[in-house]
Specification:
Rossmann fold; 53% helix; 373 residues; 5-stranded parallel sheet; Molybdopterin biosynthesis moea protein, domain 2; elongated; alpha/beta; Hypothetical protein af1432
Length: 373
Protein backbone atom coordinates (compact mmCIF):
# COMPACT_ATOMS: atom_id res chain seq x y z
CA UNK A 1 0.00 0.00 0.00
CA UNK A 2 1.40 3.41 -0.96
CA UNK A 3 2.03 6.08 1.63
CA UNK A 4 -0.44 8.94 1.77
CA UNK A 5 1.37 12.30 1.68
CA UNK A 6 0.00 15.83 1.97
CA UNK A 7 2.07 18.54 0.24
CA UNK A 8 1.48 22.11 1.43
CA UNK A 9 2.76 25.21 -0.39
CA UNK A 10 1.24 28.51 -1.49
CA UNK A 11 2.92 28.23 -4.91
CA UNK A 12 0.95 25.99 -7.33
CA UNK A 13 4.02 25.48 -9.55
CA UNK A 14 6.00 24.02 -6.65
CA UNK A 15 3.14 21.67 -5.78
CA UNK A 16 2.80 20.53 -9.39
CA UNK A 17 6.54 19.82 -9.62
CA UNK A 18 6.57 17.83 -6.39
CA UNK A 19 3.51 15.88 -7.47
CA UNK A 20 5.21 14.86 -10.71
CA UNK A 21 8.33 13.75 -8.85
CA UNK A 22 6.35 11.55 -6.49
CA UNK A 23 3.92 10.06 -9.03
CA UNK A 24 3.71 6.28 -8.67
CA UNK A 25 5.75 6.21 -5.48
CA UNK A 26 3.39 7.87 -2.99
CA UNK A 27 -0.29 8.70 -2.92
CA UNK A 28 -0.19 12.50 -2.97
CA UNK A 29 -2.70 15.21 -2.17
CA UNK A 30 -2.02 18.95 -2.08
CA UNK A 31 -3.09 22.00 -0.11
CA UNK A 32 -2.33 25.62 -1.00
CA UNK A 33 -2.16 26.85 2.60
CA UNK A 34 -2.37 25.94 6.25
CA UNK A 35 -6.13 26.27 6.59
CA UNK A 36 -6.81 23.99 3.64
CA UNK A 37 -4.25 21.49 4.95
CA UNK A 38 -5.90 21.29 8.38
CA UNK A 39 -9.29 20.87 6.73
CA UNK A 40 -8.00 17.90 4.71
CA UNK A 41 -6.32 16.39 7.76
CA UNK A 42 -9.58 16.61 9.66
CA UNK A 43 -11.61 14.46 7.28
CA UNK A 44 -10.17 11.13 8.42
CA UNK A 45 -8.33 10.54 5.14
CA UNK A 46 -5.38 8.81 6.80
CA UNK A 47 -2.31 10.84 5.84
CA UNK A 48 1.02 9.43 7.03
CA UNK A 49 3.23 12.41 6.12
CA UNK A 50 2.90 16.19 5.78
CA UNK A 51 5.56 18.09 3.83
CA UNK A 52 5.04 21.83 4.21
CA UNK A 53 6.77 24.91 2.92
CA UNK A 54 8.03 27.26 5.61
CA UNK A 55 7.12 30.67 4.27
CA UNK A 56 3.44 30.95 3.39
CA UNK A 57 1.05 33.88 3.81
CA UNK A 58 -1.18 33.66 6.87
CA UNK A 59 -0.23 30.45 8.64
CA UNK A 60 3.45 29.66 8.15
CA UNK A 61 4.96 26.18 8.13
CA UNK A 62 5.98 26.20 11.79
CA UNK A 63 2.46 27.10 12.92
CA UNK A 64 0.89 24.54 10.60
CA UNK A 65 3.13 21.65 11.65
CA UNK A 66 2.76 22.48 15.34
CA UNK A 67 -1.01 22.27 14.89
CA UNK A 68 -0.65 19.02 12.92
CA UNK A 69 1.39 17.67 15.83
CA UNK A 70 -1.51 18.42 18.19
CA UNK A 71 -4.29 17.33 15.86
CA UNK A 72 -2.68 14.14 14.52
CA UNK A 73 0.54 13.29 16.40
CA UNK A 74 1.15 10.08 14.42
CA UNK A 75 1.69 12.05 11.21
CA UNK A 76 5.38 12.53 10.37
CA UNK A 77 6.16 16.18 9.67
CA UNK A 78 8.75 17.54 7.20
CA UNK A 79 9.56 21.12 6.24
CA UNK A 80 10.66 22.55 2.90
CA UNK A 81 12.44 25.88 3.19
CA UNK A 82 14.72 28.17 1.27
CA UNK A 83 15.83 29.91 4.44
CA UNK A 84 16.84 27.32 7.03
CA UNK A 85 18.28 29.80 9.51
CA UNK A 86 18.96 28.71 13.07
CA UNK A 87 15.97 30.53 14.55
CA UNK A 88 13.58 28.89 12.08
CA UNK A 89 15.06 25.47 12.77
CA UNK A 90 14.77 25.87 16.54
CA UNK A 91 11.14 27.02 16.33
CA UNK A 92 10.24 24.21 13.97
CA UNK A 93 11.83 21.50 16.10
CA UNK A 94 10.44 22.81 19.38
CA UNK A 95 6.90 23.50 18.21
CA UNK A 96 6.37 21.06 15.38
CA UNK A 97 8.77 18.21 16.21
CA UNK A 98 10.02 18.23 12.61
CA UNK A 99 11.35 14.91 11.35
CA UNK A 100 13.50 16.44 8.60
CA UNK A 101 14.30 19.71 6.77
CA UNK A 102 14.62 19.94 3.00
CA UNK A 103 16.30 22.97 1.45
CA UNK A 104 15.07 24.55 -1.77
CA UNK A 105 15.88 23.71 -4.50
CA UNK A 106 15.68 20.03 -3.60
CA UNK A 107 16.67 17.23 -5.98
CA UNK A 108 13.93 14.66 -6.69
CA UNK A 109 15.99 11.81 -5.23
CA UNK A 110 16.41 13.79 -1.99
CA UNK A 111 12.66 14.38 -1.71
CA UNK A 112 11.89 10.72 -2.41
CA UNK A 113 14.56 9.58 0.04
CA UNK A 114 13.27 11.85 2.81
CA UNK A 115 9.67 10.73 2.30
CA UNK A 116 10.73 7.07 2.24
CA UNK A 117 12.49 7.56 5.59
CA UNK A 118 9.44 9.41 6.90
CA UNK A 119 7.19 6.51 5.91
CA UNK A 120 9.46 4.09 7.78
CA UNK A 121 9.23 6.39 10.80
CA UNK A 122 5.43 6.43 10.52
CA UNK A 123 5.37 2.63 10.51
CA UNK A 124 7.45 2.61 13.70
CA UNK A 125 5.13 5.12 15.38
CA UNK A 126 1.93 3.32 14.46
CA UNK A 127 3.36 -0.13 15.24
CA UNK A 128 4.37 1.02 18.73
CA UNK A 129 0.97 2.64 19.33
CA UNK A 130 -0.84 -0.51 18.22
CA UNK A 131 1.39 -2.62 20.45
CA UNK A 132 0.53 -0.47 23.44
CA UNK A 133 -3.15 0.06 22.70
CA UNK A 134 -4.01 -3.48 21.60
CA UNK A 135 -1.57 -5.86 23.26
CA UNK A 136 -0.99 -4.04 26.53
CA UNK A 137 -4.51 -2.64 26.64
CA UNK A 138 -5.97 -6.10 26.08
CA UNK A 139 -3.81 -7.65 28.79
CA UNK A 140 -4.78 -4.93 31.25
CA UNK A 141 -8.43 -5.46 30.32
CA UNK A 142 -8.16 -9.11 31.31
CA UNK A 143 -6.54 -8.03 34.59
CA UNK A 144 -9.47 -5.70 35.27
CA UNK A 145 -12.01 -8.42 34.54
CA UNK A 146 -10.33 -10.63 37.12
CA UNK A 147 -9.96 -7.91 39.73
CA UNK A 148 -13.51 -6.63 39.36
CA UNK A 149 -14.69 -9.83 41.05
CA UNK A 150 -12.97 -8.53 44.17
CA UNK A 151 -14.67 -5.12 44.17
CA UNK A 152 -17.33 -4.78 41.42
CA UNK A 153 -18.38 -1.31 42.57
CA UNK A 154 -14.92 0.25 42.33
CA UNK A 155 -13.86 -1.51 39.15
CA UNK A 156 -17.26 -0.92 37.61
CA UNK A 157 -16.73 2.77 38.19
CA UNK A 158 -13.34 2.45 36.56
CA UNK A 159 -14.89 0.94 33.46
CA UNK A 160 -17.51 3.67 33.34
CA UNK A 161 -14.78 6.31 33.72
CA UNK A 162 -12.90 4.61 30.90
CA UNK A 163 -15.92 4.91 28.63
CA UNK A 164 -16.23 8.59 29.49
CA UNK A 165 -12.51 9.08 28.86
CA UNK A 166 -12.89 7.68 25.36
CA UNK A 167 -15.81 9.99 24.64
CA UNK A 168 -13.89 13.04 25.89
CA UNK A 169 -10.51 12.17 24.34
CA UNK A 170 -10.83 14.63 21.48
CA UNK A 171 -11.34 17.51 23.91
CA UNK A 172 -8.09 16.73 25.78
CA UNK A 173 -5.26 17.25 23.26
CA UNK A 174 -2.58 17.38 25.96
CA UNK A 175 -3.43 13.92 27.29
CA UNK A 176 -2.48 10.63 25.62
CA UNK A 177 -5.80 8.81 25.00
CA UNK A 178 -4.43 5.35 25.72
CA UNK A 179 -2.74 6.48 28.95
CA UNK A 180 -5.94 8.08 30.22
CA UNK A 181 -7.89 5.01 29.09
CA UNK A 182 -5.70 2.66 31.15
CA UNK A 183 -5.52 5.04 34.11
CA UNK A 184 -9.31 5.18 34.23
CA UNK A 185 -9.57 1.39 34.23
CA UNK A 186 -6.81 0.83 36.76
CA UNK A 187 -7.20 3.71 39.20
CA UNK A 188 -8.86 1.42 41.82
CA UNK A 189 -5.95 -1.05 41.71
CA UNK A 190 -4.65 0.05 45.11
CA UNK A 191 -7.87 -1.18 46.70
CA UNK A 192 -6.59 -4.73 46.32
CA UNK A 193 -4.14 -4.03 49.16
CA UNK A 194 -6.92 -3.11 51.61
CA UNK A 195 -8.73 -5.56 53.88
CA UNK A 196 -12.08 -6.80 52.59
CA UNK A 197 -14.04 -5.14 55.39
CA UNK A 198 -12.47 -1.74 54.62
CA UNK A 199 -13.25 -2.14 50.91
CA UNK A 200 -16.84 -2.93 51.85
CA UNK A 201 -17.09 0.23 53.98
CA UNK A 202 -15.68 2.33 51.16
CA UNK A 203 -18.15 0.83 48.69
CA UNK A 204 -21.09 1.51 51.00
CA UNK A 205 -20.03 5.07 51.81
CA UNK A 206 -19.92 4.29 55.55
CA UNK A 207 -18.04 6.59 57.89
CA UNK A 208 -14.41 5.54 58.36
CA UNK A 209 -12.32 5.51 61.48
CA UNK A 210 -9.25 7.80 61.38
CA UNK A 211 -6.88 4.86 60.81
CA UNK A 212 -9.14 3.57 58.03
CA UNK A 213 -9.22 6.97 56.37
CA UNK A 214 -5.44 7.05 56.42
CA UNK A 215 -5.27 3.66 54.71
CA UNK A 216 -7.91 4.66 52.13
CA UNK A 217 -6.01 7.86 51.31
CA UNK A 218 -3.03 5.77 50.27
CA UNK A 219 -4.97 3.83 47.62
CA UNK A 220 -3.81 5.99 44.66
CA UNK A 221 -0.16 5.72 45.72
CA UNK A 222 -0.43 1.96 46.25
CA UNK A 223 -1.96 1.49 42.82
CA UNK A 224 0.67 3.72 41.22
CA UNK A 225 3.46 1.75 42.88
CA UNK A 226 2.02 -1.42 41.31
CA UNK A 227 1.63 0.11 37.86
CA UNK A 228 5.07 1.70 37.68
CA UNK A 229 6.59 -1.80 37.67
CA UNK A 230 4.88 -2.58 34.34
CA UNK A 231 6.87 -1.50 31.25
CA UNK A 232 5.49 1.60 29.46
CA UNK A 233 3.04 2.44 32.24
CA UNK A 234 5.13 5.04 34.09
CA UNK A 235 2.91 7.91 32.89
CA UNK A 236 -0.24 5.91 33.64
CA UNK A 237 1.10 5.36 37.17
CA UNK A 238 1.73 9.10 37.51
CA UNK A 239 -1.87 9.88 36.52
CA UNK A 240 -3.20 7.34 39.02
CA UNK A 241 -0.92 8.61 41.80
CA UNK A 242 -2.14 12.21 41.54
CA UNK A 243 -5.75 11.83 40.40
CA UNK A 244 -7.22 12.90 43.75
CA UNK A 245 -5.05 16.02 44.03
CA UNK A 246 -6.89 19.38 44.21
CA UNK A 247 -6.97 21.63 41.15
CA UNK A 248 -4.44 24.04 42.64
CA UNK A 249 -1.63 21.46 42.68
CA UNK A 250 0.85 20.76 39.90
CA UNK A 251 -0.72 17.39 39.10
CA UNK A 252 -0.42 16.15 35.48
CA UNK A 253 -3.19 17.16 33.11
CA UNK A 254 -4.20 13.51 32.80
CA UNK A 255 -4.62 13.23 36.57
CA UNK A 256 -6.82 16.34 36.67
CA UNK A 257 -8.92 14.94 33.83
CA UNK A 258 -9.24 11.57 35.53
CA UNK A 259 -10.52 13.17 38.72
CA UNK A 260 -13.37 14.77 36.77
CA UNK A 261 -14.17 11.55 34.91
CA UNK A 262 -14.27 9.41 38.06
CA UNK A 263 -16.58 11.82 39.85
CA UNK A 264 -18.86 12.04 36.81
CA UNK A 265 -18.95 8.24 36.72
CA UNK A 266 -19.89 8.17 40.41
CA UNK A 267 -22.70 10.66 39.81
CA UNK A 268 -24.06 8.62 36.92
CA UNK A 269 -24.13 5.51 39.12
CA UNK A 270 -26.84 7.16 41.22
CA UNK A 271 -29.09 7.47 38.17
CA UNK A 272 -28.60 11.22 37.95
CA UNK A 273 -28.79 12.65 34.40
CA UNK A 274 -25.46 13.72 32.94
CA UNK A 275 -26.40 17.40 32.81
CA UNK A 276 -27.38 17.38 36.48
CA UNK A 277 -24.13 15.60 37.40
CA UNK A 278 -22.11 18.37 35.81
CA UNK A 279 -24.30 21.05 37.38
CA UNK A 280 -23.66 19.56 40.80
CA UNK A 281 -19.92 19.06 40.29
CA UNK A 282 -19.56 22.51 38.74
CA UNK A 283 -19.71 24.10 42.17
CA UNK A 284 -16.26 22.64 42.86
CA UNK A 285 -14.66 23.75 39.58
CA UNK A 286 -11.69 25.89 40.49
CA UNK A 287 -11.09 24.19 43.83
CA UNK A 288 -11.42 20.45 43.33
CA UNK A 289 -11.32 20.51 39.51
CA UNK A 290 -9.28 22.41 36.97
CA UNK A 291 -11.86 24.79 35.39
CA UNK A 292 -10.58 24.45 31.83
CA UNK A 293 -10.37 20.66 31.93
CA UNK A 294 -13.75 20.42 33.64
CA UNK A 295 -15.38 22.58 30.95
CA UNK A 296 -13.74 20.66 28.09
CA UNK A 297 -14.92 17.29 29.43
CA UNK A 298 -18.40 18.62 30.21
CA UNK A 299 -18.90 20.06 26.73
CA UNK A 300 -17.58 16.92 25.00
CA UNK A 301 -19.75 14.53 27.01
CA UNK A 302 -22.92 16.59 26.79
CA UNK A 303 -22.51 17.04 23.05
CA UNK A 304 -21.84 13.32 22.69
CA UNK A 305 -24.94 12.44 24.69
CA UNK A 306 -27.07 14.64 22.46
CA UNK A 307 -25.61 13.00 19.34
CA UNK A 308 -26.28 9.50 20.68
CA UNK A 309 -29.93 10.01 21.48
CA UNK A 310 -32.05 6.92 20.93
CA UNK A 311 -29.24 4.34 21.29
CA UNK A 312 -30.53 2.86 24.56
CA UNK A 313 -32.21 -0.55 24.32
CA UNK A 314 -33.22 -3.40 26.63
CA UNK A 315 -31.83 -6.91 26.30
CA UNK A 316 -32.35 -10.27 27.93
CA UNK A 317 -29.23 -12.08 29.09
CA UNK A 318 -29.33 -14.38 26.06
CA UNK A 319 -29.40 -11.32 23.77
CA UNK A 320 -26.27 -9.66 25.12
CA UNK A 321 -23.24 -9.47 22.84
CA UNK A 322 -19.73 -7.89 22.93
CA UNK A 323 -19.65 -4.11 22.53
CA UNK A 324 -22.76 -3.39 24.60
CA UNK A 325 -22.32 -1.17 27.66
CA UNK A 326 -24.49 -1.77 30.71
CA UNK A 327 -26.70 1.10 31.80
CA UNK A 328 -28.17 -0.95 34.65
CA UNK A 329 -26.33 -3.10 37.18
CA UNK A 330 -26.33 -6.76 36.23
CA UNK A 331 -27.79 -8.21 39.44
CA UNK A 332 -28.85 -11.59 40.78
CA UNK A 333 -32.65 -11.95 40.62
CA UNK A 334 -32.99 -13.66 43.99
CA UNK A 335 -31.08 -11.31 46.29
CA UNK A 336 -30.01 -8.32 44.20
CA UNK A 337 -26.30 -9.14 44.51
CA UNK A 338 -24.33 -7.33 41.82
CA UNK A 339 -22.38 -9.34 39.28
CA UNK A 340 -21.43 -6.40 37.03
CA UNK A 341 -21.85 -2.71 37.74
CA UNK A 342 -23.43 -0.31 35.29
CA UNK A 343 -20.79 1.09 32.97
CA UNK A 344 -19.10 -2.21 32.14
CA UNK A 345 -18.61 -3.01 28.49
CA UNK A 346 -19.54 -6.58 27.60
CA UNK A 347 -16.51 -8.43 26.24
CA UNK A 348 -16.19 -12.01 25.03
CA UNK A 349 -14.70 -13.01 28.39
CA UNK A 350 -17.39 -11.28 30.41
CA UNK A 351 -20.17 -12.61 28.21
CA UNK A 352 -19.04 -16.19 28.81
CA UNK A 353 -18.94 -15.55 32.55
CA UNK A 354 -22.37 -13.91 32.59
CA UNK A 355 -24.05 -16.73 30.66
CA UNK A 356 -22.43 -19.38 32.84
CA UNK A 357 -23.46 -17.56 36.02
CA UNK A 358 -27.01 -17.07 34.70
CA UNK A 359 -27.48 -20.84 34.33
CA UNK A 360 -26.99 -21.42 38.04
CA UNK A 361 -28.15 -18.15 39.59
CA UNK A 362 -30.58 -16.33 37.28
CA UNK A 363 -29.89 -12.66 36.75
CA UNK A 364 -32.46 -9.90 36.54
CA UNK A 365 -33.57 -9.22 33.02
CA UNK A 366 -34.05 -7.38 30.82
CA UNK A 367 -31.30 -4.83 31.35
CA UNK A 368 -30.76 -1.50 29.64
CA UNK A 369 -27.70 -1.28 27.41
CA UNK A 370 -26.17 1.08 24.91
CA UNK A 371 -23.99 0.17 21.94
CA UNK A 372 -20.37 1.34 22.13
CA UNK A 373 -19.56 3.96 19.47
Amino acid sequence: MTARVLLVDDEPNVLSGLRRQLFGKFEVDIATGGDQALEKLGDGSGFAIVLSDMRMPGMDGVELLSRVRTQAPDIVRLMLTGNADQETAVRAVNRGAIFRFLNKPCAPEDVIGALTDAMAQHRLITAERELVERTLGGAVGVLVEVLMGMDPTAFGRGMRARGLARQAAGALPDVSPWELDLAAMLHPLGLTALPADLRAKLASGAKLEPAESEHAARVPAIGADMLVKIPRLAQVALIVRHHRAPASTGAPVGAKALRVLIDVAAGLETGMPLGLVFAKLGNAAGTEYDPGIFAAIRDALLQGEAARGGDVSTKKIAELYPGLILIDDLAVAADGGILLKAGFEITDTLLSRVRSYHQFRPLREPVRVVMRH
